[in-house]
C-alpha cells in the first residue's frame, strides 16, 4: 500500500529545530536586514537537516517566485533549443528557475499560455517570436517584466533581442550571386497583418531578399513562394517553385526546417543538390551542421540571443521603470555542401518533373 | 517613458462590480457548494468585464495551482517533443497548464529541477527518463503525485509508462537477421549503476539485443560499443565498431540521435548506407522519417506514451492513495532506406579505413 504523503516541514519546525524565533527564520529566508551571520548559519543548518523547502507559492505572495517563464512557439525547431541554452547558462548561477511553456500555435494559444504564466506569478517573461498584437504585448509587458526575442520594431514597455534579418538575407543573396546564380528564389512565411509585416523576422527576411536582389541587379529574377515556416511549408514551396516556367537554380528558405522540406521536394523531383539546385537555410541549427545534411545556413547565434534575453529580463526585474533596451545581433553565413556554382544550362527546364509551360 | 504597472484587479473589485459579497465571489472561484447558478453567472460576468485573473499563487495556498510540471532530459531529442504533444493534447480541455523544466543533465541537475517544481507547488509531475535513484524518486512521489515515463521496474509510489524495450530490440535484431545479417553490432549507453541497469530503457535495449542475438543463434556475433545516447556517442561508437577486426554489416543504435552520429562516422569512413552497412535507430522521431535520412527505427509512439502519462497524473491528483498503475506499450518497427540485405563479401574487412588486423 502506498504511504500517505508526509506532513510538509514548515517554518515553525525550522525555528524549533534551530532554537530561534520564527521571525528570525523568516528574516533569513527573506534575506532581510537584521539577520546576523551566526543566525543565518544556524537557520541554514536546521533547513538542511530537516530538508525544509520554502514554498514558492508563499514566496510568490511576498513578491517573488524566482521563476522566469519562457514561451517557445515550437519545440521541434532546434534553433529555439540554442536560445534556451543561452538563457539557462546565463541564469545558471542565480536563484532563478526557467520554466517553459510549450506548444503555442497562433494568437489564441499564445494568449492562453502568457496568461497562464502571469497567473503563476512569474517574475519575468521571455517571449520567443510571439505573434501577438503589439497592443497585447504592451499589456503583458506592463504587468510583468518582459523581453521579446525575434521581433523587430520599437517598443517602450519591453526589451528586445533580434538578429539583423535584413542583413542575414543579404548574406544569402550575395553568396549565391557570387557563385554565379541569377535565378535565386525565396520561400517566405505568408503574412498579411501590417504590424507583423513590419516586425516579424520572416517578413524582414523576405524584404532583405528583395532589397539584396535589387542591389545585385537581379530585380527581374525575384521569385517568391509564400507558404509557412514549417517542414511542409518548405516542401510545398519548393514544389511550387520547381513547377514554374523558369526553374530557379537556387532556393533561399527562410528557416532550416523550411530548407529541409524543400530538400525533400527536390529529391522527389529527381534533382540533385547542389548540382541541379542550391539550397540555403536560416538559423544554422544543429540539423544544418549534421554531416549528411550539411546545409548552408545563416547563423543567428541563438545562445548569444538567449544570454542577452536572460540578462535583460533580470535587469528589468530589478528596475521596472528603466528605459527599454534593444539588442540587435549581426548574423554570419555558415557555408556548407548545399550551395555551389550553377551548372551551365541548368536554367533550362528539362529536368523539371511537371513543367507547366 | 514606460507607464507604471497598473494595479492588479482583486476579488474586492469583482465583488463591488457584481454587487455581491467577497465571500460569494470566493465561493464561485473555489467552485464551492452554496453558490447558486444566478450568483455564478453574476460573478462570472464581473470577472469577464474587469479582466480579473485569480492569482495562481493564491490558488496554490488553497491547494491547487493547476500546473503539471514536465521534466525533459534533452530538448534536442525530438522524441520527447512527441511525448509532450501527447501530454498537452490530453490536457487540452482541462484547466491544467503544462510547464516544462528543461536541461537536466545528470542526477544533480535533475534534483535541482525537481525541487524547483515542488517549490512552485505543482499539482503533479511527469518525469521523463529520470536518472535519479529509486529512493529519490520515491521521496518525490510521496510529496507530489508523480508519473515516470521511460523507466522500468516496480514502484509503489508513482505510476509509470514504458515502452517494451526488450521487445523493441528484438524487432531490430529479427529484421536484420531476416535480411541475412549476422554481424549485427549495438551501440549502448554506458551504465554501471545496478538499479539503472535494471530500470533504464537503454539497459533494457542492450539486454533485449543480447537475448535476441542468442535466440537467433548469433551469440558469437554479439558486439557492443559502450558510449552514450548522444550524437557524439553514436559517432564515437560507430568509429570504434568500424575499426574492429570483424567489421559489422549492421549497427543497431539505441536511439535515433545515436544513429545519426553513427551515420556521420560511416560516411566519413567512405562507406555507404545501406550497401556497406545497415543502420537502425530507436524512437522513430521526426528526423528518422525525414526523407534524405530515411532511417529504419523502432516506433515507441511518444504521443501515446504522453497521453497515458497525462491521464495517470490527473487520476493520481484526484486520488493520491490509489494503487500504482504501470502502462507498458508495445513498439513497432518503421522500416526505411537505411537497412538492406548485406552485400556478399561485405564482411571481409577490405573497405575498413584503418584495419587493425
From TrEMBL, chains A, B:
Keywords: DNA-binding, Transcription, Transcription regulation. InterPro entries: HTH_LacI (IPR000843), LacI/GalR-like_sensor (IPR046335), Lambda_DNA-bd_dom_sf (IPR010982), Peripla_BP_I (IPR028082). It holds the Pfam family Peripla_BP_3. The keyword Cell division does not apply. It comes from Paractinoplanes rishiriensis. The keyword Zinc does not apply. PANTHER family: HTH-TYPE TRANSCRIPTIONAL REGULATOR GALS (PTHR30146:SF109), LACI-RELATED TRANSCRIPTIONAL REPRESSOR (PTHR30146). SUPFAM superfamilies: lambda repressor-like DNA-binding domains, Periplasmic binding protein-like I. It comes from the Bacteria. GO terms for molecular function: DNA-binding transcription factor activity; transcription cis-regulatory region binding. This is LacI family transcriptional regulator. Residues 9-63 form the HTH lacI-type domain.
Amino acid at each position: 500500500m502506498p504511504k500517505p504523503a508526509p506532513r510538509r516541514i514548515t517554518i515553525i519546525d525550522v525555528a524549533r529545530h534551530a532554537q530561534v524565533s520564527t521571525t528570525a527564520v523568516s528574516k533569513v529566508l527573506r534575506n532581510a536586514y537584521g539577520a546576523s551571520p551566526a543566525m543565518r548559519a544556524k537557520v541554514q543548518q536546521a533547513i538542511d537537516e530537516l530538508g525544509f523547502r520554502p514554498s514558492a507559492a508563499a514566496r510568490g505572495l511576498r513578491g517573488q517566485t524566482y521563476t522566469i517563464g519562457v514561451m517557445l512557439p515550437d519545440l521541434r525547431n532546434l534553433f529555439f533549443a540554442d536560445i534556451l541554452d543561452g538563457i539557462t547558462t546565463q541564469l545558471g548561477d542565480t536563484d532563478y528557475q526557467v520554466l517553459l511553456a510549450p506548444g503555442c500555435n497562433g494568437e489564441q494559444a499564445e494568449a492562453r499560455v502568457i496568461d497562464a504564466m502571469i497567473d503563476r506569478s512569474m517574475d519575468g517573461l521571455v517571449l520567443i517570436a510571439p505573434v501577438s498584437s503589439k497592443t497585447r504585448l504592451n499589456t503583458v509587458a506592463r504587468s510583468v517584466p518582459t523581453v521579446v526575442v525575434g521581433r523587430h520594431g520599437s517598443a517602450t514597455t519591453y526589451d528586445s533581442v533580434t538578429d539583423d534579418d535584413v542583413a542575414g538575407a543579404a548574406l544569402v543573396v550575395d553568396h549565391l550571386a557570387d557563385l554565379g546564380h541569377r535565378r535565386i528564389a525565396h520561400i517566405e512565411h505568408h503574412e498579411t497583418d501590417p504590424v507583423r509585416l513590419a516586425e516579424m523576422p520572416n517578413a524582414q527576411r523576405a524584404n532583405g531578399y528583395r532589397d539584396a536582389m535589387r542591389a545585385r541587379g537581379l530585380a527581374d529574377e525575384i521569385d517568391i513562394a509564400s507558404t509557412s515556416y514549417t517542414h511542409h511549408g518548405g516542401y510545398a514551396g519548393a514544389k511550387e517553385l520547381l513547377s514554374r516556367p523558369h526553374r530557379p537554380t537556387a532556393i533561399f528558405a527562410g528557416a532550416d526546417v523550411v530548407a529541409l522540406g524543400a530538400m525533400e521536394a527536390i529529391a522527389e523531383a529527381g534533382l540533385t543538390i547542389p548540382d541541379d539546385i542550391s539550397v540555403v537555410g536560416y538559423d544554422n541549427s544543429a540539423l544544418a551542421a549534421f554531416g549528411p545534411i550539411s546545409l548552408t545556413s545563416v547563423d543567428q547565434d541563438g545562445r548569444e540571443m538567449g544570454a542577452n534575453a536572460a540578462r535583460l529580463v533580470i535587469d528589468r526585474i530589478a528596475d521596472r521603470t528603466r528605459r527599454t533596451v534593444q539588442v540587435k545581433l549581426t548574423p554570419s553565413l555558415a557555408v556548407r555542401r548545399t550551395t555551389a556554382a550553377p551548372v551551365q544550362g541548368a536554367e533550362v527546364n528539362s529536368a523539371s518533373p511537371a513543367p507547366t509551360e
